[in-house]
C-alpha cells in the first residue's frame, strides 16, 4: 500500500464555458488523446441540445448529469463462502465520475449519426429523466434497495 495518497490534480476550466466540470467530462469523452476532437464533439452536442430544447445547453447538460448520478451502489463481498451484494454510499467525486461514464457509454450505444448527435440525444433524455443512463441509475438504486438487508456487512 502507498505511504501517502497522491495529490488531487486541479482541472483547468474549459475555454468556452469556463467550467471544470466540462473539462472533466471531455477528458472522459476523449479517445486516444484527441482532446481537441472531444471538445469539438462536446460543444457541438451542447449546441444541438440548446437548439432542440430552446434552453441553455449547459444548464440542460448539468441537469441531465445530476439526474444520472447515483447516490448508492452495490459492492460484492465474500462472507463465509457466499457472495453478498452490499449497498454502500458513494463519495461525491466518484458519484460524478460514474454519472459521466454512464452518460458517455450510453451515448456511444445510441444509433444517431455522429457522436455529437448521440451525446445530445442522451443529454436531452437524461434531463427528462429517461434514456439508458437514467435507467442504469434507477436499476442501481433498485438493486441497492433489494439488498438493504445486507447493509450491516458494510466495510
The largest beta-sheet arranges its strands as 1-2
Uncertain runs: none
CATH superfamily, called what?
Answer: Ribosomal protein S7/S5
| CATH 2nd-level architecture | Orthogonal Bundle
Shape, please?
Answer: globular
| Count of folded domains | 1
Largest sheet: 2 strands, antiparallel
- Average pLDDT works out at 91
Distance between the termini: 18 Å
Radius of gyration: 18 Å
Q: For the record, what CATH class applies?
A: Mainly Alpha
User: Which band does the percent of strand residues land in?
Assistant: 5-15%
How many beta-strand elements? 2
Class per helix and strand makeup: mainly alpha
CATH topology annotation: Ribosomal Protein S7
Count of DSSP helices? 6
Written account of the structure:
The chain has 155 residues and is mainly alpha-helical. The protein has one domain (20-74, 86-153): Ribosomal Protein S7 (Orthogonal Bundle). It has helices at residues 20-29, 35-53, 57-68, 92-109, 115-127, 132-146, and strands spanning 72-79, 82-89. The chain has a two-stranded antiparallel ribbon. A hairpin with a 2-residue loop joins strand 1 (72-79) and strand 2. Helix 1 crosses helix 2, helix 3 packs across helix 4 (92-109) and helix 4 (92-109) packs across helix 6 (132-146). The radius of gyration is 18 Å and the shape is globular.
Amino acid at each position: 500500500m502507498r505511504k501517502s495518497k497522491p495529490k488531487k490534480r486541479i482541472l483547468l476550466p474549459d475555454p468556452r464555458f469556463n467550467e471544470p466540470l466540462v473539462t472533466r467530462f471531455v477528458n472522459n469523452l476523449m479517445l486516444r488523446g484527441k482532446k481537441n476532437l472531444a471538445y469539438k464533439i462536446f460543444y457541438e452536442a451542447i449546441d444541438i441540445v440548446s437548439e432542440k430544447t430552446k434552453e441553455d445547453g449547459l444548464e440542460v447538460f448539468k441537469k441531465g448529469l445530476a439526474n444520472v448520478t447515483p447516490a448508492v451502489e452495490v459492492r460484492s463481498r465474500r462472507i463465509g463462502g457466499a457472495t453478498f451484494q452490499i449497498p454502500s454510499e458513494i463519495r461525491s467525486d466518484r458519484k460524478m465520475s460514474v454519472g459521466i461514464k454512464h452518460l458517455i457509454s450510453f451515448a456511444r450505444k445510441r444509433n444517431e449519426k455522429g457522436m455529437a448527435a448521440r451525446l445530445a440525444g442522451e443529454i436531452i433524455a437524461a434531463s427528462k429523466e429517461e434514456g439508458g443512463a437514467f435507467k442504469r441509475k434507477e436499476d442501481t438504486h433498485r438493486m441497492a434497495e433489494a439488498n438493504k438487508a445486507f447493509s450491516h456487512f458494510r466495510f
